[in-house]
């Protein structure tokens, strides 16, 4: 039988900023439906890799393939249509808008993406609106935001704002979700909830997740595999346990 191609394939990816080498020949695969943890000390290149995957940064060498297509041939505005969604290390929300309005923006991204396809099925504008509203409510419920749906994002605690950002990213129906330090600033209870949610998303939606995270407990709990970076290089890849015990990983964290 033919091998199943990975959803995401990164090969020999290199990114330089002047004299700084942010990524140096990094390569790994993520299979569909997998949660892949991406760890490494500050400055290792994790966010740079995410920025390449969302086409915010270019790269000097290497290749990124998503669902069998080279990423660099696609215009940036097609990213959502292609099915790559993300959250940011520093939140990127419309803080003067309500929770519901923010989540609704996510469905809008998806609608634009599928506009032609939807139009050919002649659903009518009304149906599109109803579908967007239904999906907005679905993700508000999934992220337990019902009680604050009409509040302004700016007035909510940080942990809640992070759930709003996640709801908005999910409302665009990504196939691959990039999470940049989602546990940062969360309390213990919120952290448990986040772990449950990531596992539920994989089980229920078959979502593929690339997770940048410093919180080792969360990475260990939810990841099928882990990739470790240090100074822009991949230093380990494997099961969470194997990567955690890898001598180069231990050295990288002790030297941090
Ligand atoms: P991490 O997310 O693992 O902490 P980053 O990817 O943010 O690491 O950074 C990797 C290296 O690339 C760092 O040395 C950082 O200063 C540098 N870097 C990242 N983005 C830029 C940029 N836009 N301009 C210049 N240097 C950058
Ligand atoms: Mg970072």
From TrEMBL:
SMART domains: AAA
Keywords: ATP-binding, Cell membrane, Membrane, Nucleotide-binding, Transport
Keyword Nucleotide-binding: yes
GO cellular component: plasma membrane
Keyword Cell membrane found: yes
Domain ABC transporter, chain residue ranges per copy: 8-256
One protein family per Pfam: BCA_ABC_TP_C
Record-level Gene Ontology MF annotations: ATP binding; ATP hydrolysis activity
Protein name, as recorded: Leucine/isoleucine/valine transporter ATP-binding subunit
Biological source species: Pseudacidovorax intermedius
Chain's gene name: livG
């Amino acid at each position: 039988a033919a091998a199943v191609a990975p959803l995401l394939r990164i090969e020999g990816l290199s990114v330089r900023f002047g004299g700084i080498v942010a990524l140096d020949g990094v390569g790994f695969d993520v299979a569909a439906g997998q949660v892949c943890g991406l760890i490494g000390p500050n400055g290792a290149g994790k966010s740079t890799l995410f920025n390449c995957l969302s086409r915010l940064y270019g790269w000097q060498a290497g290749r990124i393939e998503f669902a069998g297509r080279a990423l660099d041939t696609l215009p940036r505005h097609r990213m959502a249509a292609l099915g790559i969604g993300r959250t940011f290390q520093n939140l990127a929300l419309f803080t003067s808008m309500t929770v519901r309005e923010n989540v609704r923006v996510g469905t809008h991204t998806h609608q634009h993406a599928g506009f032609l396809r939807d139009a050919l099925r002649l659903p009518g504008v009304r149906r599109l609106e109803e579908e967007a509203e239904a999906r907005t409510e679905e993700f508000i419920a999934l992220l337990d935001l019902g009680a604050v749906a009409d509040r302004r994002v700016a007035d909510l605690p940080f942990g809640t704002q992070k759930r709003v950002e996640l709801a908005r990213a999910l409302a665009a129906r990504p196939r691959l979700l990039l999470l940049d330090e989602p546990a940062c600033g969360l309390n213990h209870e919120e952290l448990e909830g986040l772990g449950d949610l990531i596992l539920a998303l994989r089980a229920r939606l078959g979502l593929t997740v690339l997770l940048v995270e410093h919180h080792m407990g969360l990475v260990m709990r939810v990841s099928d595999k882990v990739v470790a970076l240090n100074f822009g290089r991949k230093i380990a890849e494997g099961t969470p346990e194997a990567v955690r015990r890898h001598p180069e990983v231990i050295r990288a964290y002790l030297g941090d």
